Amino acid sequence: MVSLALEIVGITLSTLGWIMSIVCCTLPMWRVSAFIGANIVTAQVYWEGLWMSCVFQSTGQMQCKVYDSMLALPQDLQAARALTVVSIMIGILALLIATVGAKCTNCIPDEGVKARVMASSGGAFIAASLALLVPVSWSANTIVVEFYSPISIIHLILDSSLFTVLCYRQ
């Protein structure tokens, strides 16, 4: 009975992590502009995501534009696009495997086989989390390096999409 409860908690947390990876993939807040120095009052805030960039103006108006070409994106965002989609797909596969191998289902009658199926589901969830952790870490490193660059006028900072992954995927 205790192992069934632990299994349900594990599947629930894994499903929550998978949903958060979808949210992370869709939000346009991977990079947010921050003006440092004399520009204390800003009229526009720039958001960059995997699929679009947005400009939020001080009047409350927001305009978003889908990227014209994938080749125009930096390398870290190109890799992040691919790896987040791969992570979501592996998460779907892991959820399906967990559904088949759960103790509360009758798809597999042998308990030993069910345990191995659930272990493979856990391995798939770990692979999905690592596939999402790589682009998040790479983008965070790029943002930190560009933030301290003396050439850049507009500094980009980490925002909620990256923090969502770092908090829920560990």
TrEMBL record:
The chain crosses the membrane at residues 6-27, 34-59, 79-102, 123-141, 147-168. One of its GO terms (cellular component) is bicellular tight junction. PROSITE patterns: CLAUDIN (PS01346). Pfam families: PMP22_Claudin. Its main location: other. PANTHER family: CLAUDIN. Claudins function as major constituents of the tight junction complexes that regulate the permeability of epithelia. GO terms for molecular function: structural molecule activity. Keywords: Cell junction, Cell membrane, Membrane, Tight junction, Transmembrane, Transmembrane helix. This is Claudin. It is a multi-pass membrane protein.
